[in-house]
Amino acid sequence: MAAIDMLSSEQIFYGCSPPAGFLTDYSAPVRRPTKLSTRGYSAPSLSVLKPVQLSLKSSAPRSCIRLSTEKKQKRVVFADDRGYALEHVKVMTEPSHVPPYWALMIVASPPLERKPSLVDTWDVRFPQPASDYLEFRRRITENYVALENVIVKHNEGAVDGTVKVKNLDFAKEVLIRASSDGWSTHEDTYCAFVESGPLNTSGVSTYDTFGFRLQLPIHSRKLDFCVCFRCKDKEYWDNRNGENFTIEKSSVRKTPAISCARINYGNSWSGSVVGHTPYW
After folding, report:
1. Staple 161 to which of 36, 150, 197, 271, CB 3.0 to 4.6 Å?
2. Could you give the domains of the chain?
């Protein structure tokens, strides 16, 4: 077997049969060992070794990189098929090749019967004090306190405002006294310091600004309030010369606005229709 392997390796190396005399002559008889029989040792047997012809299969060289020219088929898999929840759902009322149309001609058609609704709004029944600058400065100088302005925030159900007081001393407090039942009862709300005013020649601010917030009453349609300034054991009031500041609720009839409707023109559309109807 070793001789056969050597023969095949040499045949690959030289490309032909090995030279004569390189290997032992295989045509000569080979003496095989004697076999033991029941009668004793038998005579040695001679046999002729037949030459073995080897054939090598040649194959084309193989590349380590496989190039695939086959195209894989693409598949579309939806999230709900896999058991996942859809992130966004759109409902289309027209085919994909039809643009959406919004009709303006419906405005010219006879309107449907629309009942106006009542909407409650809070209105300020006094002019903003800071709008008259000279009068506003006079009240600060003479009365030491003056309401500056107010803003009604309907979505928050509150009233925000600012007050300016003369800087008589560092220790001071400002409060808003309000009533929603015609002054049968009242409630005091303390203001918070916002900022100081400009400095005078002595390096002290002339006035200070305070801010406040009042909640609009739920079971009343009127809110009255005034401003109180306390400093050095004295009180100074701004009550609009005895009339007080009033915010009142009023009901306004609001008619719903006219909305456009979508008209389905079918599965086909032409340039003439697009020219008369806006495309969004």
Report:
1. 150
2. 122-248 (2.60.40.2440)
Measured CA to CA, the distance from residue 173 to residue 63 in angstroms comes to 93
Other beta carbons within 10 Å of 194: 13
Burial of 147 (0-12, 13-18, 19+ CB in 10 A): buried
CA-to-CA distance for 109 and 277, rounded, in angstroms? 16
Nearest to 97 by CA among 266, 277, 276, 262: 266
Tokens of 2: 């070793």
Query: What order of strands is seen across the sheet that includes strand 158-166?
Result: 145-153, 158-166, 207-215, 192-196
Partnered with residue 226 across adjacent β-strands are 177
Give the model confidence (pLDDT) of 221-274 as tens digits: 999 999 999 999 999 999 999 999 999 998 776 665 555 444 454 444 444 444
Contact yes or no for 187/178 (Cβ under 8 A): yes
Residue 174, phi then psi, degrees to nearest 5: -130, 135
To which residue do tokens 């009365």 refer?
Answer: 143
